[in-house]
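Hey all, quick one. A colleague (J.T.) asked me to put the pyridoxal-5'-phosphate job into the tracker so the inputs and the structure tokens live in one place instead of scattered across chat threads. No bug as far as I know, just bookkeeping. Sequence used:
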Amino acid sequence: MQLHQSSVAELQQWESELAREYAAHQAANLNLDLTRGKPSAEQLSLSDALDGILGGNFKDEDGNDVRNYGTLEGIVSARRLFAQFMQVQPDEIIVAGNSSLTLMYQTQEFAMYQGLPECEAWSKQGGPVKFLAPVPGYDRHFGVSQHLGIELVPVAMNDNGPDMDQVEALVAADPMIKGIWCVPRFSNPTGIVYSDSVVERLARLPKIAGKGFRIFWDNAYAYHILDEDAPELADIFALAKQFGTADNIYMFGSTSKITFAGAGVAFLAATPANLKEFLKHVGWSQINPDKVNQLRHVRFLKNMDGVRALMKQHAALLKPRFDAVLQQLSGLNNLGMASWTEPRGGYFISVDVLPGLAKQIVKMAADAGVKLTPAGATWPAGNDPQDRNIRLAPSVPTVPEIVKATEVFVTCVKLASVRQELAKRS
Ligand SMILES: Cc1ncc(COP(=O)(O)O)c(C=O)c1O
């Protein structure tokens, strides 16, 4: 039954059936959680061999004793491995501590307050500093900018990446727009992969931007494939080298969702000039990153074949969970109440419900024992102007738990939509 085509009598009957269904869910005293995108314990266990892997051998291949101070840029073997991972040269990457978000925070903070190789700090260029935020997007990206006093300008996220007509028009018109947040492969939360044309236009973007423009290329899910034939991502750095914009790109990655989420290894890839500037600033707060953990990762992952083999094991655990969500969401097919993404990789499914209902649906689900990411979290300052986007993160619960949680979610979407429609008709 299509929501808008139903008569008031049909809607009333539907509402009472759904209200009974919802009450039954509430009576079941559920305690389920689809909130944060983190690996399950089973996924983490895939990397348990990291523990003790060094067996007392603390020397890197160049004889560097990783237990001691020094080597701020990361150990040689880790830079070589993660250079392949990020498709750059070893002198175009530094390997750091456990969090790529920390690297994003630091690069943005240094650019904002300290300066860049080619120009003075953004904050000293006169006028409020702005950053483009494709929405829906990753709440913690938005949090970094906001915490540093950077104003976020939302731009629409399409099925092939950010709306580039909008992005180019904004950047060309305002030199105080200093960058854009990007999760280019299996974007958080929509799961889309930026198309070749979007990547090429992004690589050219600095040519029309103000001084010190930076593309924050957070490739957090680069290898997080659910389907073998998932779309590939074009190489922005190679394109930027062709267009003379390589200095405008910062690329980030980590093993947070490959090995241990809280104890992985993170990296920043950029031109040597940018890396030198970054190390100059970071060197005031740190003598070196945790090189012991870097060496553990090199010994454990070995090479890119090792990374890919591990990611296949992750996919085997994740795929049935995503399928379970999608199977339940299909109960909303053709009702005119919601649309959602069917990602080929990554950690999330993004659902758009009818305008004005996201917060209410999240609350209804919580009242029935199903925790969801707060509505609005995918927008700057947690404010989704249409109140319609909800992010589902199915990696942690078991498949039966996901089936139950999504069943409750679907009931909430239907009930809230039917009630909204009835209110409109009254
Ligand atoms: C897009 C994106 N970037 C970065 C992170 C966090 O990465 P890290 O653990 O390396 O700080 C996440 C975590 O959910 C993420 O979704």
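Adding what we noticed when we looked at it: The domain at 61-302 is CATH 3.40.640.10 (Aspartate Aminotransferase; domain 2). The two ends are 20 Å apart (CA to CA).
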